Amino acid sequence: MAFRKTGIYKSRDELRALLRPGVLTAESLDAVQAAVAPGITTGELDAIAERTIRDGGGVPNFMLVPGYRNTICASVNADVVHGIPGNRALEPGDIVSVDSGAEFEGWNGDSARSFVLDDPSRPELVTERRLLNEVTEQALWHGIAALATARHLNEVGDAVEDYVESRGDFGIVEDYVGHGIGRSMHEEPPVFNYRVKGRGPAVKPGLVVAIEPMITLGGIDTLTQDDDWTVTTVDGSAAAHWEHSVAVHEGGIWVLTAHDGGASGLAPLGIRPVPIS
User: Fold this and answer.
1) For a Cys-Cys bond, which of 24, 66, 206, 272 suits 9, CB 3.0-4.6 Å?
2) Domain count, the chain
3) 260 has which bridge partners?
4) Is 1 inside any structural domain?
5) Which residues constitute the domain of residue 20?
6) Which helix (H) or strand (E) holds 112?
7) Three-point CA angle 16, 81, 230, nearest 5°
8) What is the β-pairing status of strands 95-104 and 59-60?
């Protein structure tokens, strides 16, 4: 993933400009979530997300990435990220991650959620995948909570890794990481989902990042399919992916791609998000 090199701290007005694309991104995922069911194709989910973003006055920003023609990435089962939507129909027991983004007046939002489809004939598989999904989502919230109190950005990765390891034997994908976001969807700095050397940039007002842990039921090695986009686990283990865009400002933090600013996800961790004034 190539990051656009730019100043990583934004002004108060620039933070305000990021609110609308964040909401549009969340609305696109709400619409997808309402439609996820056995039999629907990933291409149909893509059309739902595109319509939601355009109806809200935005532009699907994934379409602005050279060579990519869709609104979402839809990654099923062993596919980790960057799955291309098409005629694949979802089946009972599938786990599908949907990554979406909206641009509004030149500013970007980026978020992902994963969903596990029920399958009464395979309860053990569904239980395993639901646990994976829950661990990945909570790893995201632990990373966001760490950002709220961190002095340096790499504390986020420490928190994600600590939480995942506390829940059992899961793999944290290292080939792909989070990123800054603003005028471009992918900006400096990288946001690691695991412990690294060095502290990273200071966490201070104006920092806006997309935190996005990708967790597997097996190993962490990945490969890119022949379509040059879809990233898949080498061992075929299922993966989950959750992501939010988060702004640090003078009053605290605000999750731009959550309708409540992250209040419901952060409350159990003792963090109260503060709206950007």
Assistant:
1) 206
2) 1
3) none
4) no
5) 12-269
6) strand 107-116
7) 130
8) antiparallel
Q: 139-167 burial, b for 16+ CB within 10 Å, e for fewer?
A: bbbbbbbbbbebeebbbbbbbbbebbeee
Mean pLDDT of the chain: 97
Strand arrangement, sheet containing 252-255:
187-191, 178-180, 208-211, 244-249, 252-255
Summarised one tens digit per residue, pLDDT across range 74-85 is 999 999 999 999
| pLDDT one-digit tens code per residue, 107-162 | 999 999 999 999 999 999 999 999 999 999 999 999 999 999 999 999 999 999 99
pTM of the model: 0.96
Residue 263 CB burial class (10 angstroms; 0-12, 13-18, ≥19)? middle
Which whole-number Å values give the CA distances from 80 to 9, 224, 229, 237, in the listed order?
Answer: 30, 10, 11, 10
32 found inside a domain:
yes
* Beta carbons of 83 and 73 less than 8 angstroms apart: yes
- DSSP H or E stretch at residue 135: helix 123-149
- Structure confidence at residue 6 as a pLDDT band (50, 70, 90): low
Residue 265 lies in a domain: yes
Q: What is the pLDDT of residues 200-246, one digit of tens each?
A: 999 999 999 999 999 999 999 999 999 999 999 999 999 999 999 99
- Can you give the CATH number for the domain in which 224 is found? 3.90.230.10
Q: DSSP character for 196?
A: -
Q: According to the model, what pLDDT value does residue 7 have?
A: 80
Q: Are 107 and 182 in contact (CB under 8 A)?
A: yes
